[in-house]
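User: Hey, quick favor. My workstation is busy. Could you predict this chain's structure for me?
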Amino acid sequence: MFALPMLADATKKRSEGRNLRCFIAACAFVVIYGYNRIHMTNHFLSDVCFGTLITYLIYSAVSAAFMRGLTKNNQREAQG
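Assistant: No problem, here it is.
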């Protein structure tokens, strides 16, 4: 679900508002899904929190690399 904001950035009509809405939708899904895992007694709260933290850290690293590459690509297109 955290790939959703990155997909919003990859579109031709990028906007901060669209990216924020996608990020909020992804967070809402993660919270609801995490609650479901705890409610169904499949995981403990610590499992869900740590898994969400790891996922968010991976998302942040990949998103930063993706945006860096997208910026370089846009600069190359503008030059030539």
